[in-house]
Description:
With 166 residues, the chain is of the alpha+beta class.
Amino acid sequence: MNKNTCVLLGFALAACATTPPESAPLGKHTQGYTPLSRAFETTEGYLEINAKTATFSRREGTMNLAYANVQVPPAAADASWFKLEPVYFYKVTNATAYFNANKGGNGMGQQPTEWLAIARTPDDGLSLCLGHGPFTLDPKRPNLNACGVYLKDTGYPSNSDKSLYQ
């Protein structure tokens, strides 16, 4: 399948792109992030993330991630959480197990988080949405579990404040 075919298929791109571009905000090294948005502060907590895993301090276990695709402006700009940056989608490969480990928890929702949509913020933080169903940020589709902003923890890992969220 060539790149043009993948673009035409829209959001069913998991089989087309398995390696994130170098511009992707997540790399092989784990980075810590502090939640800026109140919703993520109280429900998800401190975030440790790399291209393969995401761990929230207020949740049990770890989300296993696999790069799926990238959505670039103007399509991504329609979503208020993602202004003009490309948005990178990561599939949660253990969505059901992660959901079952956290079911009934504060803010967990009724559906497993099946993907993360991530973009860089101007201050090197992350805009992050957790969703289910098709990879889309269309506000007319009710598939977003939660969205928020995280600030990069420049002291990570030795000088982080992640203990505040445990």
